[in-house]
Amino acid sequence: MSRVVRRRYVDAGERRRASLQEGGAVTRVFLEFADSTSMHGVPRIINARSLPARVFWSVICVGAFGMFFWQSGILLDKYFSYPKKVNMEVVQQPVQFPSVSICNSDHLSLVMANRLETLLKGVNVTHSDDDNDNVTQFLRKFDDFLLYSSTFFQVYTEVIPLERSFDHMLEVYSRLGLTANIGYDAASVAGVQRDDFIVNCRFMDDNCNIATSFRKLFDPYYFNCFTFSPASILQSGASRLQGVEYGLSLMLFTGSAGHLSTSNEFNYLIPGMQESDPALASGQGARVVVHSPDTRPHPTAEGYDILPGYSVTVGVRASENARIKRPHGNCSDHSTQTDSRNNTYKYTLISCQNQCIQKKIMATCGCVDNRIPDPIDFNGLPYCFQLPKMSASCFSLDETPLESACVAELRAYARMMDCRKEVYEMITIRDPHAIQTCNCFPPCNDVVYDASYSLSTLPERTDEHTAFYSILDKFLDNLSPAKKVLLRRMHGDNYEHVMGQMARLNVYIADNNIIKTTESADYDATRLVSDIGGQLGLWIGISVMTLFEVIQLFADVLRYLTAKGRKAGERPSQRTAADLATCTNKNYDPFNSYTQYTRNGDRYTTTNTNTSNDVYGEQNADDRYMYQYASPANNRRMRYELDKLTAL
């Protein structure tokens, strides 16, 4: 028996909602979400009263979502470009006084140059009072180098073309070649010593101790350089005082060893006192490098030349840089670098690039270029300018042909010499971008100094300028007898001529304000989240609370699907006649006594006992009974499903 129960709808939207509610539990979960969500647009689609309205709101929602994703893509693209901003400000704070490194342009001391000149003249070298074991060892190494190199190049020109051989010979006899063949320790002995170079020192308007205030640094080109460290005097290394009187003032004696070859009739060019590269050829005077404290100076690449007979004043202004790391910027947070002589310095960009070039030469040519500080892991490779130790049989000067092994070794040395030059040309000329493969970046935090340079001539000896000459007198009095003899040979008793070999250097803080440059992220994750949140609210009306509503929606759907799967695996319960009798006898009322079920044969009929309430739906006693009840009193909807019982 089938009967249609009267339906009453408020409007078309309610009819559609009612039809959806007759669906499964998942559908009802989504309907409840649409009724309660704070997301705009979705409830409009579900509650639309007509198809055009539903299409209209669907198009609006799709367009709003499209605009949101487009704007979000722009924001993400901006974020992943990692922009940065630079902030510059002038700060008044104590300025860290820079380190000052000085090198004599004439790298050999007067005494050592004189001994070498005597040795080259063929005169027996006798020991003097100034000699010690190190000096004797240097002279022996220098003599061995001269004998071996002269024989080597006689044979070398027989295998290698003359022009190419001559270029290689000039490189071997240069300063760098001399250092490579006699060793750093021996070259340091031959270099200008601190007491022979620095005549007087004043810092912060007071005399400074030359022995403790200067640290010796070996440079392959200048041999001995000396670095003034302000931390040896100032506890913090910083000062608020500006002006020449509160800076560093040095008197330097730049006595030229090169004068020995022009002050007499001997015209032999002393090995190690010329340079094959004109760009590196040095004049008279001194080389000065003003650099950050605890960093390694590079005299051939940085600094200023001081001419003898002049007073040079260098005013410095400090700038402090704070760079941002990746991904917004490129800076290196390496704190220190160490060379093969266990010297530790702060990281600098030029040091990193030099180390990279050195490693490229080592890997390509199998040698170490000694113009660059040795890497700590050079694995005992020879210097590029170092002559190979060949068998004595290769140096036979008779008419017999050279052995094939000797020829191969000479050609290998020629390739090594050319290889070093080719690597330099490739990096600096043919492919300037090759240096970028080194991945060297400026330090993340450093202090740099901008210098202004001025000079004037030293005053002549007058009553007003006796201070210079009193300093010179004191310096000359402390010289050893051998050095005094050499000076007399060069200058006689002419004080003005000797004074012409002096130079004064003043380094001071020109401005006690620091220019501070700080890099920071211009668009960080906080701004990205804020902007995307603004786009969500602008286009689709979603907030953080809405996101949690969506999370709860998925949780409800997942919970329903899990429960449904669990019930599907259970065995259905069997109803008994007693259960049915209990249901019939008690007039079982699943709708709170509004609908009664009674047995009529093998079918069941219903009786509605409350006509004041609306019941709508259909009954089909052949299959199942489906009722949906709406009570105006409590505004609730109920659903009951009764399966047909046939197994009685």
Describe this structure in words.
It is a single chain. The protein has 648 residues and is α+β, with helices and mostly antiparallel strands. The chain folds into 4 domains: 1-82 and 523-570, YojJ-like (Helix Hairpins); 90-331 and 444-518, Acid-sensing ion channels like fold, CATH 2.60.470.10; 351-438, no CATH class; 574-648, no CATH class. The chain has 19 helices and 23 strands. Strands 2, 5, 6, 10, 13, 16, 17 and 18 form an 8-stranded mixed β-sheet that branches. Strands 7-8-4-11-12 form a 5-stranded antiparallel β-sheet. β14 and β15 (344-346) form a beta hairpin. α4 packs antiparallel against α17. The longest helix is centred in the N-terminal third of the chain and has 30 residues, at 51-80. Mean pLDDT is 76; it is low at 1-10, 260-266 and 580-648.
Secondary-structure-based class equals alpha+beta
Relative strand content:
15-25%
CATH domain class of the largest domain: Mainly Beta
Q: Classify the helix fraction into a percent range.
A: 25-40%
CATH-wise, what's the superfamily of the largest domain?
Acid-sensing ion channels like domains
Largest sheet: 8 strands, mixed
Q: Provide the number of structural domains.
A: 4
The gyration radius over C-alpha positions equals 47 Å
Shape: elongated
Poorly predicted residue ranges:
1-10, 260-266, 580-648
The name of the CATH architecture of the largest domain is Sandwich
* Mean pLDDT metric: 76
Query: Terminal Cα separation, in Å?
Result: 19 Å
The CATH topology of the largest domain comes to Acid-sensing ion channels like fold
| Helical run tally | 19
Membrane topology: Multi-pass membrane protein
Main location: membrane
Keywords: Ion channel, Ion transport, Membrane, Sodium, Sodium channel, Sodium transport, Transmembrane, Transmembrane helix, Transport
GO molecular function: ligand-gated sodium channel activity
